[in-house]
Amino acid sequence: MRRSRICIIGLEDYGLLQGESTTRYVGGETVQHVLLARAWRDLGVDLSIIVYDHGQPRVSEIDGIRLIAAYPPDAGVPALRFVHPRITGMLAAMREADADIYYQSLASVYTGVTAWFCRRYGKHFVFRIASDAYCIPGKQLIRFWRDRKIYEYGLKRADLIVAQTQYQQRLLRTHYGLESQIANLVVEPPRRRTERVERDIDVLWVSNFRPVKRPELVVELARRLPDLRFCVVGGGPERDQQQMLRAAAELSNLHYAGPVAYDAVGEYFDRAKLFVNTSSLEGFPNTFVQAWIRGLPVVTFFDPDGLVAKRGLGVAVSSFEQMVDEVAALTRDADRRTAIGNVAAAFATENFSMRAVAGHYLNLFATQFAEASPVQPQMV
Predict the structure, then answer these.
(1) pTM score, two decimals?
(2) I need a surface site. Which of 65, 76, 125, 336 has the fewest CB within 10 A?
(3) Which domains does the chain have, with CATH numbers?
(4) Is 95 exposed, middle or buried (0-12, 13-18, 19+ CB in 10 A)?
(5) In this prediction, what percent of the chain has a pLDDT beyond 90?
(6) Phi and psi angles of residue 306, each rounded to the nearest 5 degrees, phi first
């Protein structure tokens, strides 16, 4: 009996997989794909990932993970490339993968394409909800009406939907009448013992510069708390980066590190005393578990399923004034930070380790797909 085969649709994953040290934005889903792929590989899964064609061989292998190039990211004639080479290239790559299960996790046209392929060829389609917005019609960050409808076609035809939180489950049920299962994020353990690192950053902020992330609030936080050392890590549009550079030049207690490669961002978490999140909307931030695994309390407006408050993993605030007060109080109280940090580190280790989460997915797949009748190819 051959090993189970899983294929991840991860067009942006090639750079991180090959160890490329880049300061280009690396999305949270790219990180999740790579960590899950490595964990599944270690559990004996035959693993492939569909990536962009950057000039590498069409089929290659890195650390026991097969990579299949779909198409170059900028290839094709505008208005025509939607079909070729994008959809044609994706379908060809999926046929090459010949997997049992196809896993996709970004709301896009490829949600629909993957669903169609799986129904046509008798495969299983697993879609993971990466953001609360994926569960609300019209809120997805999808530009064209056509593409939103293709996404919804795929969402409704997934064999298994994996949510990050109970809140996402409720949103899916309310807006689409769909059920889902919960699986946690995976987190990479710190690469060095954090107790040996000097904590010379009082407050850390890590994200990409998008309106929903509200980076302007961390600047105002630094302005209101001039005795604390703030560090901002992130990239985005040049205009936004220049604006952050100007703020850092104006405020002596604010350091802007700029875009930082994923492999290096852990060093900033290692050096921090406290992590802040200023987003108005999230799914379940990778940065939370990166902070918790290192024993950092989180101060945040966004609290997935109320975990921060219920589990004592930091402080969930409801106003900017409350955030100012809580950040000031926590940075002054080392004993309280340590107590919260110990709880957070234990929670992250127990619930977000790579092997445990990857195993939970495999159990979900076995339960979900064993109960179903054998999948037969069908026209859709």
Answers:
(1) 0.87
(2) 336
(3) 5-186+354-371 (3.40.50.2000), 194-351 (3.40.50.2000)
(4) exposed
(5) 82
(6) 70, 20
